[in-house]
Structures are given as C-alpha cells and as structure tokens.
Amino acid sequence: MKIKLCGVRTVADALLCANEGADEIGVIFAPTSRRRVTIAEAKAIRAALPARVPLVGVFLDAPLEEVIRIAGEVGLQAAQLHGEWPTGCAPLPLHAVLQMVSAESLQPRPGAARLLLDGPAGGSGRSFAWSLTERARSLHGGELFVGGGLTAENVAQAIAQARPSGVDVAGGIEGPDGFKDRERVRAFVRAAREVSR
Description:
By secondary structure, the chain is of the alpha/beta class. It has one domain (about 1-195): Alpha-Beta Barrel (TIM Barrel). The chain has 6 helices and 8 strands. The protein has an 8-stranded parallel beta barrel with strand order 1-2-3-4-5-6-7-8, surrounded by 4 helices. Helix 1 links the parallel strand 1 (about 1-5) and strand 2 (about 25-30). Helix 5 (about 155-160) packs parallel to helix 6 (about 180-195).
C-alpha cells in the first residue's frame, strides 16, 4: 500500500509529509489549482526531500512536451495527468487520472504506469463509489490508486472496499489555513497503514 500526499506547496510541508511516512509527495502545476506551485518552489521541495521519496508533478491538460520539460527541470520522478491523455512516450512514468462520475468515466489510458480514480472534480474533496475500482481493473493491469475526498476517518473503508495499490490525498490532510496539518497527516498515514496490514 503506497501513500501519496499531494498538494504540497512548501518545503516545510514536504518534509512534514516525508517524515510522517509518505511514500510519495505530489506538487501541482495546474494553473487553476489553489495549491499550484512555481517551478522554483517545486525545485526547492525536490532538493529538500530525501532521495528515497519520489516527487510527482500534477498537470491539467498540459502538452506532453511541457510536462517533460518541467519534469526534467524540477527532477520529478513521475507525472500525474488530469484531462486529455497524450499520445507519445515520455522519459518518466505517466499516471493517468479519471474523474469518476459513473461507470462510464472508466476510459482506457494506453501506456499509463498508474491509474488514479479520483472524485468527480479534481481538488473538490468529493469521493466516488469505491466499488467501481473492480471494473477499473479490467482496463488497467498496472497500479490502481484511489483519491477524492479521503480523510483519516474514511481511508480505511476506501482501502477495504477498493483494494487499491495506493491512496492519494490533498485536502484531507490540510488545516483551515490550506497547509498540511501535522495531526491530520499523522492520523491519515496511521489509518491507511493499519488497514493495509
């Protein structure tokens, strides 16, 4: 069970997440996101993180050339792509995101190293019917993650129902100020680890 803590905007939050047991850290480059980081901020986060913790860049409808350029500049280990799925190859793993409204949301993403089933709208904090992950397995033979509306209170239920390779959370580990909250991060990681054992 992998735990990806996403929407990190500062070095302090990145180190908090890494120290509390995150398997991966996510930084968001989507222009419309309130959690968006600049390339300089992302480079500082990558430089501060232990080498063992991968940094994943999150993009929305970005051209593949732009994704590859930013990944090289920042030192990303993978790119998570929302929106249009590109054709062509990249020198790093590409993670496909499906915004789950219904079973019809399940679309093949050829070449994706990972499929993330997310809530109906990215960053909305809304969940989806976790039972849909069973159908997703027929589309995708690689890693299958779930996200969307996860918190320390419901992540155990999500893992038990979906049986994913990993979970992805952003808003569920934030305080009222929009930055990562130590107790919420700790509680989320603990809950996910306990049920996956």
